[in-house]
Amino acid sequence: MTQRVNKQAVAQAFGRAADGYERYADFQRYSGERLMALLPPSAAGTVLDAGCGTGWFSRRWQQQGHRVIALDLSSGMLAQARRDASAQHYLLGDIEALPLRRHSVDISWSNLAVQWCDSLAQGIRELHRVTRPGGRVLFSTLADASLHEMRSAWQALDNYQHVNTFLSEAAIRQACGKLALRLESETVTQHFPDVLSALQSLKGIGATHIHQGRASGLLTRQRLLQLQQRWPQDAQGYRLSYQLITGVIDCE
């Protein structure tokens, strides 16, 4: 359940996407809304938004009366969140080594960020550590069926890795150990008019860093046409699917 992640490269990729991120973040907003729906209304408290991105959900938490700590690995994303007055406090940091003391927040929230951890178990331990007893950890992540259309299309063309490998639902559950966990899985499929639009949806949010080696060079028109011929589609367009995992941990 561990992998070597080049955190600097991940931060740079997301930083490059910061200015236009929210134009492409439909799935991220969907995931966050699903996650928020799992938490009943609560009294105002301190929320850690771990992997805050541009601060879309930090602002949502603020609107509900919470004090928000926005944390991100990317200085570019954090700067955008600050420009939009998304939180009361901003921290440049890593979910696997949170710069916060034990039991310092009421809710630890992480929407589609923990898949960039070297060790999901370590990331979950850190979110749990900083959350007070009686509080909750809420996280969403991607499981191994995610982006299977893109993976299968590329596998028909070459032997390079073009899509990151995600953990299975069982491995995600195992990473949470004996914590009081509720886990849900859902398949979310987006449709695009062409393959370039599907690829742009990933580039637009900065999710372009591949943990292991990949093919170099530009995506030529011919290569794109070959990819499009192999990419699964239906009557609605070219598909891009995610296996969305949402988790809630009650802290005791």
Automatic annotation (TrEMBL):
<comment type="similarity">
    <text>Belongs to the methyltransferase superfamily.</text>
</comment>
<dbReference type="InterPro" id="IPR029063">
    <property type="entry name" value="SAM-dependent_MTases_sf"/>
</dbReference>
<keyword id="KW-0489">Methyltransferase</keyword>
<protein>
    <recommendedName>
        <fullName>Malonyl-[acyl-carrier protein] O-methyltransferase</fullName>
        <ecNumber>2.1.1.197</ecNumber>
    </recommendedName>
</protein>
<dbReference type="InterPro" id="IPR013216">
    <property type="entry name" value="Methyltransf_11"/>
</dbReference>
<dbReference type="InterPro" id="IPR011814">
    <property type="entry name" value="BioC"/>
</dbReference>
<dbReference type="Pfam" id="PF08241">
    <property type="entry name" value="Methyltransf_11"/>
</dbReference>
<keyword id="KW-0949">S-adenosyl-L-methionine</keyword>
<dbReference type="GO" id="GO:0009102">
    <property type="term" value="P:biotin biosynthetic process"/>
</dbReference>
<keyword id="KW-0093">Biotin biosynthesis</keyword>
<dbReference type="GO" id="GO:0010340">
    <property type="term" value="F:carboxyl-O-methyltransferase activity"/>
</dbReference>
<keyword id="KW-0808">Transferase</keyword>
<comment type="pathway">
    <text>Cofactor biosynthesis; biotin biosynthesis.</text>
</comment>
<dbReference type="GO" id="GO:0008757">
    <property type="term" value="F:S-adenosylmethionine-dependent methyltransferase activity"/>
</dbReference>
<comment type="function">
    <text>Converts the free carboxyl group of a malonyl-thioester to its methyl ester by transfer of a methyl group from S-adenosyl-L-methionine (SAM). It allows to synthesize pimeloyl-ACP via the fatty acid synthetic pathway.</text>
</comment>
<feature type="domain" description="Methyltransferase type 11">
    <location>
        <begin position="48"/>
        <end position="139"/>
    </location>
</feature>
<dbReference type="GO" id="GO:0032259">
    <property type="term" value="P:methylation"/>
</dbReference>
<dbReference type="GO" id="GO:0102130">
    <property type="term" value="F:malonyl-CoA methyltransferase activity"/>
</dbReference>
